[in-house]
Amino acid sequence: MVDGDTLVPNDGREVRLVGIQAPKLALGRAGVTDWPLARQAKTALEELALGRELALYQGGLAIDRHGRVLAHLVRADGLWLQAEMLRRGLARVYSFADNRALVADMLAIERQARAGKIAIWADPFYRVQPADPELLAPLIGSFQIVEGVVAAVAEARGRWFLNFGPDRKTDVTATIPRAAARLFHEAGIDLAGLAGRSVRMRGWLDDYDGPSLELTHPEAIEVLP
User: In which residue ranges of the chain is CATH 2.40.50.140 found?
Assistant: First the structure.
């Protein structure tokens, strides 16, 4: 077992539980410390997987740039490991444009764990952040879930911008690349119609005229009631 979302079966391949991100262990990397509850997440995956027969199912990119197999893992008794880690509050949904299978199901399980403040959801380190540039600025370079009301929507040369304040040079912005806009359209998401809507987004925070998130696929954003 490598950590809470990566394991090595008997065949020696390193398998990444696609679609989730468990709290990370430092694993000897210089300048990196364990995230809160990282060891608990690894222990939980060991409990779920060690000595068990596992079936691997793939619904997108099969191998990542690190050479790891990307798969959904299901035990012989039918237990879906990704779902169980989310249910225990020991992972967040973490999806990619080239691996979108079952993300809606995982988001629903994550929402239940978050509502119950289970495990990571009781720790401020993992809290859903408001779309506030002052609060997000120190978090640049980290994976975050961010909520806010879209103040304005703009489009330029096929690239879309969701602005969360009146000053696009300093306020929080989410961008949808031109190549991704088609996926949003296919998913029935009217980007222009998001103005005034409350949304929850997830991704790695960058600094581009204020804190920004790039949304590469529809599952990276949830339109809230």
Answer: 128-223
